[in-house]
Design goal:
Layout lengths: L2 H16 L12 H10 L5 H14 L3 H6 L2 H8 L6 H16 L8 H5 L6 H12 L8 H11 L8 H14 L5 H14 L18 H5 L16 E10 L4 E6 L10 E2 L2 E2 L5 H9 L5 E11 L4 E10 L13 E5 H4 L6 H14 L1
Parallel strand pairs: 1-6
Antiparallel strand pairs: 1-4, 2-3, 2-7, 5-6
Helix pairs in contact: 1-11, 2-3, 2-8, 8-11, 9-11
């Protein structure tokens, strides 16, 4: 038996004994349910995903329901999970499945990879876990397991390191029970071969693991080279009218928080009074600067200044646009919102009470 075959057999045996079997997306497996779970699990922990997945499935039980739903509603069910391009891509892909694949999730790897937001590893996971097809996967957990077991040097984000890991993933993936093996690899990385303090004493491949034998678990895989994140600042305008409604604006469909509802935004050198005059044609009756807050994106840190503004004008006297509307705060909190905006609205609602 080759080292790769021995590795696969040990993973399968461990999976049969210790693998996770009670996660909601493992029940009634379909390509659609696996797809949604795989996208939600990108950059997000299982415990966080579970309630989101269950709510999402209850509202969008299949790709047709997802395709037919308005994007606003999809984003509302995603609100709080972050990385909102994932939700926009899910919606676009569902519509392509409806319109170009007769409503059936494609079963060909190339066709699955052609859908928005689905890369090679996600496509392989969907078709192996839901359809039993032989495809290797290489998510973050699998990269870590393979890098440690086979002593792969370098950061997995580098093209040559990634190519080496794909080569190992292909070689180790068995011809039979691919679904159990791929699930076992994800479980192994999530529960034992964790980034910090891995439970090597319980690992089924510890006797042949190069990182374990050399005591280099903290070194492999190599971390992403660190860089200093730039900082930016913005002014959010929390504008309430005489009826207690708050002005909400929908962000452009692409970019940060694309398609989500937010507060009107301006540069930090903008006067809230001037903004109200210029954009609403009214002067505020009250302006209060709230404590600033910070939010970190993958490529920069954002400092958010918040101006709580009151105007006496009734909403009908302030022009509305397709991307701008007045909402009671309670209703606004049900929209698809970026997490920082949801927190600001919650504070405003609490203060009004």
């Amino acid at each position: 038996m080759s080292p790769s075959q021995d590795f696969a057999q040990r993973v399968l045996h461990w999976r049969d004994e210790h693998g996770r079997t009670d996660l909601p997306w493992q029940q009634r497996r379909t390509p659609y349910r696996v797809w949604i779970s795989e996208i939600m699990l990108q950059q997000t922990q299982v415990a966080v995903v579970i309630p989101y997945f269950e709510r999402f499935m209850a509202r969008f039980p299949n790709q047709i329901a997802l395709a037919d739903a308005p994007l606003d509603e999809v984003l509302a069910h995603w609100s709080g999970l972050g990385y909102y391009a994932r939700a926009r891509n899910l919606h676009r892909a569902a519509r392509l499945i409806r319109d170009q694949h007769h409503g059936c999730f494609p079963s060909d790897l190339a066709a699955v990879q052609a859908l928005p937001g689905i890369g090679r590893s996600t496509a392989g996971a969907i078709l192996s876990l839901a359809c039993g097809q032989r495809h290797p996967i290489l998510d973050g957990n699998v990269k870590r397991v393979l890098a440690r077991r086979f002593g792969v040097e370098g950061w997995p984000g580098k093209s040559d390191v990634l190519a080496r890991l794909w080569e190992l993933a292909e070689r180790c993936t068995p011809d039979e029970r691919v679904d159990a093996y791929n699930q076992g690899m994800m479980d192994l990385g999530a529960t034992l071969c964790t980034r910090h303090r891995p439970a090597c004493q319980d690992c089924p491949v510890r006797q042949s693991c190069i990182a374990c034998l050399q005591g280099r678990q903290s070194e492999l895989p190599a971390p992403k080279p660190s860089k200093t994140l730039p900082t930016r600042a913005t002014l959010m305008l929390a504008i309430r009218n005489g009826d207690g409604e708050i002005l909400m604006e929908q962000r452009p469909p692409t970019g940060i928080w694309g398609g989500l509802w937010s507060l009107p935004e301006a540069t930090t050198d903008t006067s809230p009074e001037q903004w109200c005059q210029a954009h609403l044609g009214v002067a505020p009756s009250e302006v209060e600067m709230l404590p600033q807050r910070r939010h970190t994106f993958s490529h920069y840190r954002l400092t958010i200044h918040v101006a709580a503004i009151k105007i006496a004008t009734a909403p009908c006297l302030v022009e509305e646009r397709a991307d701008r509307r007045w909402e009671q705060v309670t209703n606004a909190r049900q929209l698809g919102l970026p997490t920082p905006i949801g927190r600001i609205l919650a504070e405003l609602q609490n203060d009004s009470h």
